[in-house]
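Contributing new records

If you add data, match the layout below exactly. Sequence lines come first and carry their own label; structure lines follow with theirs. Keep one chain per record. Anything else will be rejected by the validation script.
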Amino acid sequence: MTHWPITDLVALTLLQGLTAADIRMLATTTDSLEGALQLRAADATLFGTPCQALREIAEGAIRRAAAMHVQVLPWYDTRIPQRMRDAVDPPAVLWVRGPLPDTSTTCIGVVGTRTCTVSYGAPVTKAFVERWVDAGCAIVSGLAGGIDTVAHETTLAARGVTVAVIASGIDRVGPLRARRLADAIVDHGGAIVSEYRCGQAALPPFFPQRNRIISALSDAIVVVESGRTGGSLITAEFARRHRRPLYAVPGPVTSSRSQGTNTLLRNGHARALCTADELLDDLGVTRLPLGSTLPLTDPERRVMHAMEGGDASVDVIAERCNASTAAMWTMLLEMELRGLVRQLPGGRFAICTPL
């Protein structure tokens, strides 16, 4: 812990080349910003900015944060969940818009490729997240396109709580769709979280650091789809460092978007996740009956009525619902993951829960 004022702590984060660990060390071993700069005076390229100039920039960022109702929290602040304060290398300062879930809430980190498949990755994410929200879990992700966006939007549609961790200042969220989604997350009781001051644009080195925060805030990490390389695998590595349970959804061997997840499974780094309830059981989360708080959507209800007379092929169900076969396969997969229907041999489906 440190007695430094928050302005000076933010000022210290402005110095390029310092890690969060460096900042925490300087704040706990020196008496002031001046003392910290003097201790590291040999790093002339990093510490050429006068203290007063650093403080003015920090004060401006804090004012901008206050105008947006953004909290500026040092790493030891009890408003930060215990799981994150105990994690390896927590941020020295956390900027938070909206309330963070408390330690008693189970938080599941959901990550994946920005170019997720609409026939597999997206519906799997939607079905799993709906189930976890139904069980009272909060969903943590990175506000990027693809799997992240599906996870956040599905949580909001299910009236759950989601946390988005970003790699820029909270006032610099972009593009427009992400900015609107961020506003909706806060409006629905969730939070936007960043390690970076208001006014700071996103830079490439910030994204891996963003991924470590997703891991630190989560009780478990799930990778839905990932290419051979990418941010999802970086998040997976942080999950291992943080000793978080790591899961990967198996994918088709013919899909480039499953190369990363299948490699995690092949190397024994992650556990295969085939149903949402497997994760709830592993985390000891009390499971409500399937669909207990998630009513059928109108399209789902039409599908159920189309199978009232018994099992039917996908083509027949699609014809009865006036839908394409491809769209019906996607919907039936989602419904199967929710436990509403089951697949039979020969591409036929049957109802497994009553209307």
